[in-house]
Design a protein that fits this description.
With 289 residues, the chain is α/β, with parallel strands linked by helices. The chain has eight helices and seven strands; from the N terminus they run βαβαβαβαβαβαααβ. The chain has a seven-stranded parallel beta sheet, with helices on both faces. α1 (22-33) links the parallel β1 and β2. The longest helix has 24 residues, at 170-193. The protein is globular. Pfam families: adh_short_C2. Belongs to the short-chain dehydrogenases/reductases (SDR) family.
């Protein structure tokens, strides 16, 4: 079922966190191409415990330009998802300009891997990847009505068995905890909001070909046997968890899932833990009815 007026999400207003680059930017552009106006939010600053550069203000500006080039309206704001008061103001400002809010895509996330990182890496990762999602959704809830859709980005990591984190450091443990707790949160929130016809779902990607994956800190974790591993070195083992032969999926693969869940095509889909993982779940989990 296609939205009236052309485009799968025509007439909808979509909030996306982490919109400056990577998956968030790809989703913002794709949903705009399908008829949505976009409220694009991002921190656009580094976090001390994260061992790779985060998005910049210029990158958020570029996302806004690319969305505007589709002919849709866009509001782009720098917001820290760890601060709910900031999010409330941003959502209110976006709704005032764009007129409504129909879809929330809680995409913002970090990964901080390395045994040498301080224990604050655990706290920072949980604050962004779990608390940031909760803050985003709760700031948006007063503006959502029947037919709205809430989509959170989880991770295949949440759905795989726990493992030792000594070598990967506190940030790795924080990532696992945050994404697992997020999956539970989505399940419970979907149950609460279903009678109001507000849908709540999670998308769980495996490795995605974005700056969060393609950086030196990740390469070192995948190739600890090398002093200065390259992208080519790491990509040789990225796919070890996948039965399908690929080192990673593309941002477009996640966007396809998000677009489906944002559109009325999924109007009766809620509480879904949708895996886009090249089969990574299958290698370590038995069938569960």
């Amino acid at each position: 079922m296609t939205s009236p007026g052309g485009g799968r999400v025509a007439g909808k207003v979509v909030l996306i966190t982490g919109a400056a680059r990577g998956q968030g930017r790809h989703q913002a552009i794709a949903l705009a191409e399908q008829g949505a106006d976009i409220l694009a939010l991002d921190l656009c600053a580094d976090i001390d415990s994260v061992p790779y550069p985060l998005a910049t203000p210029d990158e958020l500006d570029e996302t806004a330009k690319l969305v505007a080039a589709t002919g849709r309206r866009v509001v782009a704001l720098r917001v820290d998802v760890r601060e709910r008061a900031e999010l409330r103001r941003a959502v209110a400002d976006g709704v005032a300009e764009l007129g409504r809010l129909d879809v929330v895509v809680a995409q913002a996330g970090i990964t901080a891997l390395g045994a040498e990182l301080p224990r604050t890496a655990w706290a920072d990762t949980v604050d962004v990847n779990l608390v940031g999602v909760v803050n985003t959704v709760h700031a948006a809830l007063p503006h959502l009505g029947a037919g709205a859709s809430v989509i959170a980005t989880g991770s295949l990591v949440a759905l795989r068995p726990r493992r030792a984190y000594d070598e990967a450091g506190p940030g790795s443990a924080g990532y696992k905890y945050a994404k697992l707790a997020l999956a539970h949160y989505i399940h419970e929130l979907a149950t609460v909001l279903a009678p109001e016809r507000i849908r709540v779902n999670a998308v769980h990607p495996t490795n995605v070909d974005t700056p969060m994956l393609q950086n030196d800190s990740i390469y070192r974790q995948f190739r600890r046997d090398l002093e200065h591993p390259t992208r080519e070195d790491a990509e040789g083992v990225f796919g070890v968890i996948h039965p399908m032969p690929t080192p990673f999926v593309d941002a477009a693969d996640i966007t396809h899932a998000v677009l489906y869940l944002a559109s009325d095509e999924s109007r009766y889909v809620t509480g879904m833990q949708l895996r886009v993982d090249a089969g990574g779940y299958l290698t370590v989990n038995e069938f569960r009815p």
